[in-house]
Specification:
The chain has 13 helices and 19 strands. A six-stranded mixed beta sheet has the order 1-2-6-3-7-18, covered by helices on one side. Strands 12-14-10-15 form a four-stranded antiparallel beta sheet. Strands 4-5-19 form a three-stranded antiparallel beta sheet. The chain is α+β, with helices and mostly antiparallel strands. It is globular. Helix 3 (98-119) packs across helix 13. The structure holds zinc ion. Residues 71, 100, 135, 404-405 line the site of zinc ion (ZN).
């Protein structure tokens, strides 16, 4: 706990270049004190802290990912105690980075150290790979991984980041991807008087609405030709898993303030949320939005669209299809700009090493974890599954209300300690698994 607090006291705000290099050195030292051979590997940005703890005679290698950079602490006045002075209260450590990701990352180091001290050797080789730019979109990490494929070879990537399920421990196997587009319709060179020009000037706001509306049927089905072509059918294991995720219709209804469009049933809710793609209007802007009347024809209109993609949809291909759709429907003049994309990523829920991890988490917590095929949201899991070509399994150790990226971020002491246990037991379960590469 004292060591974790020391790690937290060292700021490492990548977005503001505050303390990150110092923190990398501290993590390297903690890693080597835990028993790994640790070094900094430079990137064009902040270094990756890399370590190996080899086990003579071990057949498998586990690659553990984490990040030592944190989000900016602002707004400072919203913190009950200062962000870089860890405060222990209500069974939690409160501080910036406590949950995201220092507490979770540090649990892996303590697990390695605990096994080495009590057993003398690890049951598997462990490689530790902690980056310092996760909170600034991991901008040098893809190139780092491609350049170090051999160094990072392993049977499995094991990572702890993000919050647990509200009901307790959770294991998940990937995420939906994202494609973010901005659509712009242009009109005259300035806003125009709608009396003096109405009917003769182009009307980009209405035009953009029509273009956007053409993307869906009245029932919400995406009409972009080929949008669903590559959507993978849920495997029998996926379907079984969906049935086991706790779903309380009442609390979902309270959370949303309305009934979900999928109705009262958990299976439909999770199938739609996790295993189906979605195309959403994230923003829609044009013209006058202030009080009262202003009679103009705005000269520009913009919409932001985010598509959440599932296996085996490809962001490049989906972007092409949306562009082709707009052209075919006569909206070739609507400008399309990509603002970002991350492909979806999945490891099968019945992967043998996944079962080993689930057994480990169950032993560490004394209860079965919630198993989720993938998150509805997006994390760069494809780096592990596609760039490294490895199965990738996520076991968060921070509580569901960790307030990551927000004031009063925390990790529970229980989550930290059971996190250490989870990693330690996972190393043995992974070593003992008779299949899984
Ligand atoms: Zn974060």
């Amino acid at each position: 706990m004292e060591e974790l607090c020391a790690l937290i006291r060292q700021p490492s705000v990548s977005a503001q270049n505050v303390g990150v290099t110092e923190c990398a050195e501290l993590v390297r030292r903690l890693m080597s004190e835990a028993g790994a051979e640790a070094r900094l590997i430079p990137t064009p940005g902040f270094p990756v802290v890399y370590g190996e703890a080899r086990a003579s005679g071990a057949k498998r290698t586990v690659l553990i990912y984490g990040h030592y950079d944190v989000q900016p602490p602002e707004p400072l006045e919203a913190w009950e105690t200062p962000p870089f002075e860890p405060s222990i209260r209500n069974g939690r450590i409160y501080a910036r980075g406590a949950g995201d990701n220092k507490g979770q990352m540090f649990a892996h180091l303590k697990a390695v150290e605990a096994v080495l001290r009590t057993r003398g050797r690890l049951p598997v080789n462990v490689k530790l790979c902690f980056e310092g730019e996760e909170e600034i979109a991991s901008r040098n990490f893809p190139a780092f991984l491609s350049a170090h494929r051999k160094l990072l070879a392993a049977a499995l990537v094991y990572s702890s980041d993000g919050p647990m399920h509200p009901s307790g421990p959770m294991v998940y196997f990937g995420c939906r991807g994202i494609l973010y587009l901005e659509l712009t319709a242009h009109g005259a060179k300035r806003d125009l008087h709608s009396g003096n020009y109405g009917g003769v000037a182009p009307a980009p706001a209405a035009r953009l609405c029509q273009a956007v509306a053409s993307l869906w049927s009245g029932r919400g089905k995406v009409l972009v030709s080929g949008f669903y072509d590559r959507v993978r059918k849920p495997s029998p294991a996926d379907r079984r898993t969906l049935r086991t995720i706790p779903f309380a219709a009442q609390s979902v209804r309270e959370d949303l303030g309305c009934l979900p469009v999928t109705g009262e049933r958990g299976r439909a809710y999770y199938r739609q949320l996790l295993l189906q793609p979605n195309l959403n209007v994230a923003g829609l802007t044009s013209g006058y939005q202030g009080p009262g009347m202003k009679t103009i024809i705005p000269n520009v209109a913009r919409a932001k669209l985010d598509a959440r993609l599932v296996m085996d949809q490809d962001p490049d291909e989906i972007e092409e299809k949306i562009r082709a759709h707009l052209k075919r429907r006569g909206f070739g003049d609507v400008e399309v700009k990509r603002l970002g994309a991350v492909p979806p990523s999945r490891t099968p829920v019945d992967h043998p090493l996944g079962k080993a991890v689930v057994r480990a988490v169950e032993q560490a917590w004394g209860r079965r974890p919630v198993i989720v095929p993938n998150l509805g949201g997006t994390i760069p899991d494809y780096l592990f599954t596609q760039v490294l070509g490895l199965p990738s399994i996520w076991v968060p150790y921070a509580p569901h209300d960790e307030a990551n990226h927000a004031p009063n971020e925390s990790i529970t002491l229980e989550g930290f300690v059971n996190g250490i246990r989870s990693t330690a037991v996972a190393l043995f379960e992974i070593a003992a698994s008779s299949e899984g590469g």
